[in-house]
User: Which sequence fits this backbone?
């Protein structure tokens, strides 16, 4: 028997917060509209909408944006929209092996300022992130709604880094450490989990998708029915050390043989490309291994697409092509013949933009 | 950009239905308690609880169950509980190759009447199910809350069978056909998806679990964070025709080589066991293939356990043992060394009990 979920209760103040998010969500996705439009879209009464809109204008989240000419008699409708210049978001991406990048973003996820700093020694990571965030907050011409951080490692739902070997973190509450230093709301998540949010909100991904992030390591972020998967130990998406196939393979840095990461990580791929002349063959082999590893996941979750993030010169082309061919060959044609494998169109900005989505979602309830 | 989800709005009547479910859910999981206890558990006011309890008593879903002796001064508290005899549920399992089984169940999922009929010719399936359901409704000593049906095939969220080759169904609205014939609420789902609900509600499964159902074919049902996974085409869990390994294997009925079903289905296993003397070796091979197929799924979803449903004499023992060894060897020890593979303790009743959970959830909001 399960414990009752206390989060499920609906109290009046929760309904209000929920309705507030609903108004923001509607404007976020549909743009400027009248109060009457919002009422129609949300099913909430005109009175409730007028009330919420007044409150959201006072808080600086929405603004009146002129009038729409009346098509018939009566006074023209005043349009309201998210005040896309009323607030900014700071996003930070710690997944680069050479550098950390950060940005000031609009509520629409557009990057207006970008900064990059060299990746520091392990013991200086927090200080470096704090300094980068402070500079970005100072860069912003509007109040900063919050700071989103995408980091390698396994992160729980309160922003505690359960493990991040690159930084020597285990059980480290990065979210609190940064909030204390910066005095602003901070949200921390795994980099690939941030990336899949960006792909969903800004990149046109479907509701059932895996984003595979290829860099020094290989990780992924998954959505099922548009909801992020977290896993029993917050380790959902950790597919880098799953063994691929039953015919051996390269030795992995973890000591096992044939891990996906040993086939697909940038260092592993680059080393093999440097060693042999058959570039396409190497890339096709890696794509085939990706397809072998993902076929059971595509089948079990009935995913409609696989999105790749990482160096285009490696991932786009023969690798992605072979991955989709292998996926289709190894799953049930009836359901998965249409599965797609594509590069993200968001390039290097994907984690930064995902970090912005975390803040939009955490602070405004918009997703 | 996503369309706004209209389902997300919280209107007063939704809050009331939600709170009603919350009271039922609390009693379902915790048993008899006082109105004051319910108020404390749910965070809802005493007035709201008194109101909801009165309504639920009038509807025959809960009942007063005596008093608890007062430990201090004041009058003893009246206990209320689900009226576990006030309603019954009918569950039907169409997954057997030889027969259909049906049962009358209590709200706790206990089976009080069971019936079995020979599986009919394809064209008689609906008539057979209707007759079985009518008999079971007549068997019930209390009003029937609804009828849950677990069936092979891919079923959408409205009970339309998208495809069920065994019965020749494609795009067939079984739920409406049965509701029209029976005049009671009907809920239809895939048999393995029903089974995982039973394992979650009655079998002690964790929040992140796959239930693998082995019979004529091989299917599965998955929960992530306690929520059923449906997939982009309602085909989540369809892992029978995922290719396992990169070293060939038996030819599958689908024509491909090395599908999980060709290794693990009851007919495939039985045929191999009949042909050779090394029973343990055959079972271990099948378990290894199950582990190979599931390793990427366990990694991607960070599942804590794999539950097996099907013939114990085949699945329990060397097969399950090898499956867990293979799973652990092919995933990251840090996260998945604790992953378990076990038989369900619910035997043949698992789909019937899952069908009851569908009705509890659909009609009372209890899960």
Assistant:
């Amino acid at each position: 028997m399960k414990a009752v979920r206390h989060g499920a209760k609906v109290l009046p103040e929760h309904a209000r917060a929920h309705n507030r998010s609903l108004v923001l969500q509607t404007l976020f996705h549909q743009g400027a509209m009248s109060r009457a439009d919002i009422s129609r879209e949300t099913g909430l009464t005109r009175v409730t909408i007028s009330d919420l809109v007044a409150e959201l204008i006072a808080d600086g989240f929405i603004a009146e944006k002129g009038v729409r000419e009346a098509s018939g008699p009566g006074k023209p409708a005043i349009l309201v929209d998210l005040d896309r210049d009323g607030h900014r978001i700071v996003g930070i991406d710690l997944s680069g092996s050479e550098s950390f990048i950060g940005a000031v973003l609009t509520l629409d996820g557009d990057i207006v300022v970008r900064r990059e700093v060299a990746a520091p020694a392990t013991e200086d990571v927090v200080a470096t992130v704090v300094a980068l965030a402070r500079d970005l907050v100072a860069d912003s011409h509007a109040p900063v709604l919050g700071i989103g951080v995408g980091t390698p490692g396994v992160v729980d739902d309160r922003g505690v880094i359960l493990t991040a070997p690159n930084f020597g973190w285990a059980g480290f509450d990065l979210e609190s450490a940064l909030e204390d230093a910066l005095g602003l709301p901070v949200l921390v998540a795994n980099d690939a989990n941030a990336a899949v949010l960006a792909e969903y909100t800004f990149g046109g991904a479907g509701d059932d998708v895996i984003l595979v992030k290829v860099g020094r390591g290989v990780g992924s972020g998954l959505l099922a029915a548009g909801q992020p998967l977290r896993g029993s130990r917050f380790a959902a998406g950790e597919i880098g050390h799953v063994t691929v196939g039953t015919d051996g393979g390269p030795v992995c840095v973890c000591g096992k043989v044939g891990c996906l990461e040993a086939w697909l990580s940038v260092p592993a791929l680059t080393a093999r490309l440097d060693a042999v002349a058959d570039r396409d063959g190497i890339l096709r082999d890696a794509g085939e291994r990706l397809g072998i590893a993902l076929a059971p996941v595509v089948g079990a979750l009935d995913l409609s697409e696989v999105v790749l993030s990482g160096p285009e010169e490696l991932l786009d082309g023969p690798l992605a092509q072979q991955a989709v061919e292998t996926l289709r060959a190894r799953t049930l044609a009836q359901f998965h013949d249409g599965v797609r494998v594509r590069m993200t169109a968001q390039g290097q900005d994907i984690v930064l933009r995902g970090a912005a989505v975390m803040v939009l979602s955490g602070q405004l309830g918009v997703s």
In short: Confidence is low (pLDDT under 50) at residues 1-10 of chain B.
